[in-house]
Amino acid sequence: MAEKTKYKMARYLRKEALPTALCPGCGGGTVLNAFANAIDQLKLDPRDLVVVSGIGCSAWIASPYFLADTLHTTHGRAIAFATGVKVGLPDKKVVVISGDGDLAGIGGNHLIHAARRNIDITVILVNNFIYGMTGGQVAPTTPFGARTTTTPYRNIEHPLNIAEVIAEAGASYVARWTTAHVYQLIESMKKALQVKGFSLVEAISQCPVQFGRRNKMKEPAEMLRWFLKNSIPISKAKNMSREELEGKFVIGEFVNRQRPEFTEELNKLIEELTGQSGPGDENAD
């Protein structure tokens, strides 16, 4: 019997972390697959990466699953830790992978100000509309009218539009896709990893166990069909009213621009004040 062909992306996974602890049908595996493909297609050496996560289901994508130097941090503080890594090791490609509750809820202030500072880190924010690991509570991204354990009748708050907020805050690159748009997700991750400055890829992801079953979508495929039915390209969304966009997912690239980057500006300042090159400067002694 011929030996089974091994999955090519498996070389980017920690074998001791398998089999997966993610719930059946979770979109986290799709995001991990997309990230591994982006790294592979760019031919990036995982040894040049530092992958940072916070706490939550999506934080597992970085730690323990991805085979690179990883930093599993406290809840809501992934970007703060990643900023320290980037300032101390500016030659490293620093990537944060975590969920909407961790990055946009508890860590929302860090997310906004990292974009404002334009720190050269890539954030892959997995948005499943809910606090999935801790019991299915309402999140800042939960759609209006949706049910969660803490909004059992319906959510009366409007969700935070993460990609739009981070684009306005000053990031160099921002995109949003769903796990039903895998190829576009991979391409945006590749662009984000190559941008100089703060980059964010928001990956809207299915959570059939906590979000789906409370909102009449118990099967993962039902959530994926919901994504496809309600996704609006950003070019079309620009000509639609706020009322028309209620409950829709605006997908595509929001910004792709060049701005001064925090770490480079910091090292320039250090050199101006001391006459010495900062860490990572190839002209340093």
Automatic annotation (TrEMBL):
Pfam families noted in UniProt: TPP_enzyme_C
* One MF term in the entry's GO annotations: thiamine pyrophosphate binding
Q: Which UniProt keywords apply?
A: Oxidoreductase
Q: Please list the GO biological process terms of this entry.
A: cellular respiration; organic acid metabolic process; sulfur compound biosynthetic process
Name-wise, this protein is 2-oxoacid:ferredoxin oxidoreductase subunit beta
**Matching InterPro entries, A to Z?**
2-oxoacid:Fd_oxidoreductase, THDP-binding, TPP_enzyme_TPP-bd
Q: Does the keyword Oxidoreductase apply?
A: yes
Residue intervals of the Thiamine pyrophosphate enzyme TPP-binding domain: 55-202
